[in-house]
Design goal:
It is a single chain. The protein contains 5 helices and 17 strands. With about 270 residues, the chain is an alpha+beta fold. The protein folds into 2 domains: about 5-80, no CATH class; about 115-265, Jelly Rolls, CATH 2.60.120.10. The longest helix has 12 residues, at about 255-265. The N and C termini lie far apart (about 55 Å). Fe (ii) ion binds near residues 175, 177, 181 and 220.
Length: about 270
């Protein structure tokens, strides 16, 4: 029997078996075949190294020396000896071109955004195992800790949803809510765009297992990516209120509280 262990590194997905042999490596431009055993913390560094400082990785042989600058990078995943990945979602600054919203809209060169930058603007993130979410202890704990007693599921893809086009259009209109927006991706993927403190869009790529909380009052929007499919769990404290307030909302109480919170945590906010 094969036990799959999935590692993520800079957006690469490495599926390994219980003996850490590589089964599959996706989203890399080069393929990567290695059958060596992992010998503890650090082996991923020996195998995978970034090809540039923007966090792209190339794939090296086990004999490849560790580049010095690697320690300065913020990897998507740090692999511990116990195989407990410390996850971060892939996030980047976008170009403002009018191309299809479902495209990644990377800048040239790519500009990735670290988890700590997301945390600075109040975005929370967990990576959970989405397979048995009904009996997941991790999910249960988060829901208990944060009072998320309401839950429903939302599937988005053409043909499955009533008023699909209309819904998608509204999701992509920049808005805020009076409450947190809590989404847990069970299948598929999509982009949450959030404004940073300088009013610049950050695109956060949510994939299965990713759970994200956007604070009340943050300007944001959502789009499917080119996979055109996402299954999301929506969580809420108490009776859900999905009301969206489209920008501008500078006088909305939730917006004002949000700006105050940013300022009091030392994040300088650009006047809008
Ligand atoms: C499809 S969930 C994300 C869309 C959104 O921002 C919302 O529902 O308010
Ligand atoms: Fe929203
Ligand atoms: Ni690769």
């Amino acid at each position: 029997m094969w036990t799959k262990v999935i590692f993520h590194l800079y957006g690469h997905r490495l599926v390994k078996d219980e003996h850490h042999k590589l089964i599959r490596h996706t989203r890399g431009s080069r393929s990567f075949v290695a059958t060596n055993k992992i010998q503890g913390r650090g082996i991923m560094w020996n195998r995978i190294y970034p090809s540039n400082k923007y966090g792209m990785v190339g794939c090296g042989s086990i004999h490849h020396p560790q580049p010095k600058d690697l320690r300065n990078l913020e990897p998507r995943t740090l692999i511990s000896h116990q195989q407990i990945p410390v996850m971060a979602p892939e996030a980047w600054l976008i170009d403002e071109s009018d191309e299809d919203q479902r495209l990644p809209h990377h800048r040239n060169p790519k500009e990735f955004v670290s988890l700590s930058k997301l945390q600075e603007i109040g975005v929370l993130y967990w990576h959970l195992d989405p397979k048995n979410y009904e009996s997941s202890e991790e999910l249960k704990k988060i829901r208990e800790d944060r009072g998320y007693n309401y839950m429903d599921l939302l599937e988005l893809c053409p043909g499955k949803v009533e008023n699909y086009e209309e819904k998608l259009k509204n999701f992509y209109r920049e808005h805020i809510h009076a409450d947190e927006e809590i989404r847990y991706c069970l299948e598929g993927s999509g982009y949450f765009d959030v404004r940073d403190k300088d009013d610049t869009w950050i695109r956060i790529w949510i994939k299965e297992g990713d759970m994200i909380v956007l604070p009340a009052g943050i300007y944001h929007r959502f789009t499917l990516d080119t996979s055109n499919y996402v299954k999301l769990m929506r969580l809420f404290i108490g009776e859900p209120v999905w009301a969206a307030y489209n920008r501008p909302q500078e006088d909305h109480p939730a917006r004002q509280v949000y700006i105050k919170t940013l300022e009091s945590s030392g994040v300088a906010v650009k006047a809008h």
